[in-house]
Amino acid sequence: xxxLFPQPRxxxxxxxxxxxxGGFGACDLLTFFxxxxxxxxxxxxxxxxxxxxxxxxxxxxxxxxLRVSGEESLFRAVTSLHQLIRRFGEEIPCxxxxxxxxxxxxxxxxxxxRGRKPRMETLRTMIDxxxxxxxxxxxxxxxxDCFKYAAYPEETKDFDCLTPEDILELDRYCRERFMDxxxxxxxxxxxxxxxxxPAFRHLGLYGSETEVPSTLNPTLPESFDFMCxxxxxxxxxxxxEYVNIGLDEAYGLGKYxxxxxxxxxxxDQVFLExxxxxxxxxTEQYGKKIMLWADMIYDYPSIYKQxxxxxxxxxxxxxLIQSQRMTxxxxxxRDAGIRYYVCPSVNTHDSLSGxxxxxxxxxxxxxxxxxxxxxxxxxxxxxxxxxxxxxxVWSMNPxxxxxxxxxxxxxxxxxxxxxxxxxxxxxxxxxxxxFRKVPLSRLLYRMANYYLLEPxxxxxxxxxxxxxxxxxxxxxxxxxxxxxDSGDDFxxxxxxxxxxxxxxxxxxxxxxxxWKREIRLTAKLIELGSxxxxxxxxxxxxxxxxxELAGAIDGILxxxxxTWKKRNYEKGVxxxxxxxRARQKEMRELAKA
Length: 593
Known about the structure:
By secondary structure, this protein is an alpha/beta fold. It is built from 19 helices and 15 strands. β14 and β15 form a beta hairpin.
């Protein structure tokens, strides 16, 4: 049986068991921490280890001794002890543990801007889970309609979203659990939600009057004033010394209204101007250091030395090839003296359930490279592209695995095992934490690999999920694939049969019914996407199947909306359901033709 998770750096099993008082540890983690700190059931040796989060734990037949450096160190030790009591009850195995984290910063970033915005109760559930895995940083990614910006009250007056009071409460909740709540406000690219509004469109970079921009024009004083207004509305409610200002995928840079200016100065210098302008304002007004996504700088190593003092570059990459390219980037950051994180992904976006073989490779690679080349942190990202249809249940196992690699990367990959012990231990932990020890996670892993049966393996998405978003007369998704080249129904028939078999196995298990509903809904969505692919392959002979799928959407829509509202703000659900309604209408028209 797994003893502790994340697996500690050094654990030695000792003979015998230790009796703990009845009910001791039955409370939540924070209450248990306060109990240990103020009580005498556990011997605590303060200032007896060097690292801020390092600890030693000795469990013998005569009692429990913790050696710690301070409050945060004690919290990590108590987290391990709490897990043992939850797992074994009043008789816990004797052991000796010496432990410390691989990364000083161990973070999780959740996108709350593309539709799905968790309610406060849901966020607290997430935080408790993260803390149990020894994460110490949380970022809530913001683009647009997800926060009540005081500077623009009209924009969110009728919108259900987080308030300043909510942020203050979350900040306090995190601090009590030794977690840093870092504000995350994109500030260059990914500004589509704002720039599609008529009052803000002029701040963007665009090529035609019908084009909706996504990148701010950095040469306009009004763009800087706009960002200052967003910061003024947001940053004062966070106690963190950091703020993630994004700046990733600014695709308009070097084009449109600023093409000539960028040609004269260089795209790298125009980007650097905007970065330093924002950073200077944030440092002067709020005393915070900035983080930024690294994709806009790693092609310009000449500007590394010109980054703002204390800035942290966030090196991200979620696919197999991107993960492999990180080696050169990490070495370059280390050699240039740049502070940086490695940022893998739960990889659930644009896939409905995730793609677990890619996810495990991505997290492992980031963890090993980051530790080898001096990364300061590991930030696991959880994106919500295309309406954020995926339930958080699909993030649970990647988060557990990310917690392992952020705390202890273990021995380097040997080329054979894929560190299966880490993967299986993460699954066991999730099953214990959420599912009453029911062996569900292995089945979730299998369903999240359904895309391996699709005819094409494509970048950061699955064919079933992506085709669901495209009109029925469109089969090509940018340069990545064209469904017309996918052969016949064989592949999608296999996807449907595979998902149905796994879901039948899940139905036999007894665990929380709300989580089961969300998993069942995911299976229905994958089947729907698979059916849409078949209809698109043979539109002339698929009238009956199109009509059947349109009818299936009638059952999916209310279930999707109801499960959404259980854990999330209601507003935003339409970002995905509008795609389902559009496909439904198109398939009914196809059936009439």
